[in-house]
Design brief:
With 371 residues, this protein is of the alpha/beta class. It is built from nine helices and 22 strands. The strands form four sheets. The protein has a seven-stranded mixed β-sheet with strand order 4-2-1-11-12-13-21, sandwiched between helices. The N terminus is likely disordered. Helix 2 crosses helix 3. The longest helix has 20 residues. The radius of gyration is 23 Å and the shape is elongated.
Length: 371
């Protein structure tokens, strides 16, 4: 009897340890892979006390693990160090080193990065996949970008429509940015930064062939700034050939991304459409008995609630043409097909997603009707 009791206590103890060791929270993010690529959930614009953030680098790693992210970059301001009297660090790699050590035993990629911080028109830019942050600290901004290029860094323009630098709230493509693009020193642009989406930045991304980015630019706690307000942090979904640092870097240079903030998805059609298509699974399709009303059950396997509008020639029965499928939830469509079909193309306009300013994609699913 004592042995049975001992085993019971031991099993309970192991169970509790296992539960405590699980890092994922109920707000863990999930997005499906698309054909040919692994979908990596990333946030490449983050701050800690090693620049103007409020937390230690280990907290950023723990937050990312709770949210099931695949990669983060602690992009401390090189030139702006408000805590340097309390945390002096002439080595600008220190934040990265601490985060890398914290993530060592976990399946989280830590991307080495820094933020080049200047006033307009130069603005702020993140250089990620760098090897050493110290040489990027240059008197002249041009030299910082050329040094980043030497390190084969992927560089993106941060919050280009930030009202503190551009009072009209629109990005201004200055001669400085044009020269950086021409020299291959600027590769991406944030279309979503924190809670802000800027469609003019998306237009610039498409016009200049810049990679579309979404980031949290977090300074405080993710829980306080996002989760407790009912939001997820903004992220960039990167479509990589595999989950490695090198493959992720290659995907960013090639522009294989979608920026995400809750129900908002922004990206090029060739990546956004497959993502939405993979996010919705048709679990069943069957006619009501003795009717031509087809009942279709849909399941959303992504962490974004998806908003759709009917784009078919058929109308819906007892339903608005505009509807939402909750994140990780289900929805039932009833379609009036007028006569019985063996299969049907379900065509929906994803009105919460954008491939260009004010332009939403139409996504199609081929449905086989059950007998």
């Amino acid at each position: 009897m004592k042995n049975i009791f001992f085993l019971f206590v031991l099993c309970c103890g192991i169970s509790q340890v296992t539960a405590q060791h699980s890092h994922k929270s109920q707000h863990a993010l999930t997005y499906p892979d698309i054909e040919g690529y692994v979908t990596l959930k990333t946030d490449l614009h983050i701050h800690t006390v090693f620049s103007d953030g409020d937390v230690w680098p280990t907290i950023r790693v723990q937050e990312a693990l709770r949210e099931n992210l695949d990669a983060i970059s602690l992009t401390e301001h090189l030139e702006y160090q408000p805590h340097k009297n309390d945390i002096p660090h002439p080595n600008r790699n220190r934040s990265y080193d601490i985060a890398l050590a914290e993530a060592k035993e976990h399946d989280l990629i830590i991307v080495h990065g820094s933020e080049i911080t200047r006033s307009a028109p130069m603005g702020h830019s993140n250089a990620v996949f760098i090897k050493d942050a110290n040489p990027l600290l240059q008197d002249k901004g041009e030299k910082a970008f050329s040094e980043a290029k030497k390190q084969n860094a992927f560089v993106f323009w941060n919050h280009p429509a930030w009202h503190a630098q551009n009072p009209q709230g629109n990005p201004i493509l200055s001669d400085f940015q044009k020269e950086r693009i021409k020299k291959g020193e600027l590769h991406g642009i944030e279309v979503i930064n924190s809670i802000d989406y800027n469609e003019e930045s998306l237009a610039l991304a498409l016009e200049q062939n810049l990679t579309i980015m979404g980031t949290s630019d977090i300074h405080g706690l993710i829980d306080w700034d996002y989760t407790e307000k009912g939001n997820d942090r903004p992220i960039t979904l990167v479509f990589a050939k595999e989950k490695t640092l090198e493959s992720m870097q290659e995907a960013l240079f090639e522009g294989r991304t979608v920026a995400v903030y809750n129900a908002l998805l922004v990206g090029k059609e060739e990546y956004l459409n497959p993502l939405i298509h993979s996010s919705i699974v048709v679990t069943s399709a069957k006619y009501f008995k003795n009717t031509q009303v087809l009942e279709v059950h849909l399941k959303n396997v992504s962490s974004s609630p998806l908003l759709f509008k009917n784009a078919m020639e058929y109308g819906f029965y007892s339903s608005s043409p505009v509807f939402e499928i909750p994140a990780l939830g289900t929805y039932t469509l009833r379609i009036k097909t007028l006569d019985e079909k063996e299969n049907i193309d379900l065509k929906l306009k994803a009105i919460g997603a954008f491939t260009a300013p004010k332009q939403s994609p139409v996504v199609s699913w081929k449905i086989s009707v059950e007998k």
